[in-house]
Structures are given as structure tokens and as C-alpha cells.
Amino acid sequence: IYSDGAIVVPFVAFSYVLHTLSLTIMAGLAITKKTMHASFVICTAGAVKIVLNFLLIGAIGMEGAAIATLLAHVAEFVLAYIVTQAIYPVSYDIRRMAGSSFLIVGV
């Protein structure tokens, strides 16, 4: 019975890697004491996840929930990067971060 859930593991695993990267990127907001912007990023990602859950779970079940989680964390990462760079610019090597993320999920 649990083996049915194996199909969603890559989606969920990668989504939480993205979430961790988002929190790391948003450290600049804490440094500058502009944590309200971090709240905006996290709440926006939560809203994206709720909407996508409503749209996808009914259509494709648990895979929909996994895809919604992944897309919400992609949105969170992109938004965190944009907002933080506007307030506390740091030159991140995005290609290296992406490569490391795929490696982590692959292991």
C-alpha cells in the first residue's frame, strides 16, 4: 500500500530542497531586519499552494498535491530571490545551487 506513494517522493523531496534554499536566501532579509518581506514571500507561496491544491487534487489525486507543493516552492524560491536581491543583493551562483539541489534529490 505504501509503495503507491513512491511516485510523489521526487516531487516532495525536491520541493523541500527548494524550500530550504528559499529560507537560506531570505537570510538577507533578517540581516536587514526586513522580515515582513519574508512573511510576504511565505504567505504568497502558501496561497499558491492552496489554490493549486484545490485545482490539482480533485483532478489527479495525490500526484496533484505533490505537484502543487513543488510549484508552490518553486514560486517561493523565485519570489524569495527577487525580493531579497532587491533589498540585500548577494551574488548567488544559481546554476551551482540548482546542480547541488538535483544532486541532493538524486541521492
Description:
This protein has helices at 9-25, 27-31, 35-60, 62-87, 94-106. The protein is built from five helices and no strands. It is flat, with a radius of gyration of 15 Å. The longest helix has 26 residues, at 35-60. Helix 3 runs antiparallel to helix 4. The protein is mostly helical and 107 residues long. The protein is 81% helix and 0% strand.
Descriptive labels:
81% helix; 107 residues; flat; mainly alpha
Low-confidence stretches: none
Distance N to C terminus:
24 Å
Instruction: Characterize the main sheet.
Output: none
Shape: flat
Strand content: under 5%
Query: If you compute it from the alpha carbons, what radius of gyration comes out, rounded to the nearest whole angstrom?
Result: 15 Å
Backbone structural class = mainly alpha
Mean pLDDT rating: 91
Order of helices and strands: HHHHH
How many strands in all?
Answer: 0
Q: What's the tally of helices?
A: 5
Quaternary state of the chains: single chain
> Percent range for helical residues?
over 70%
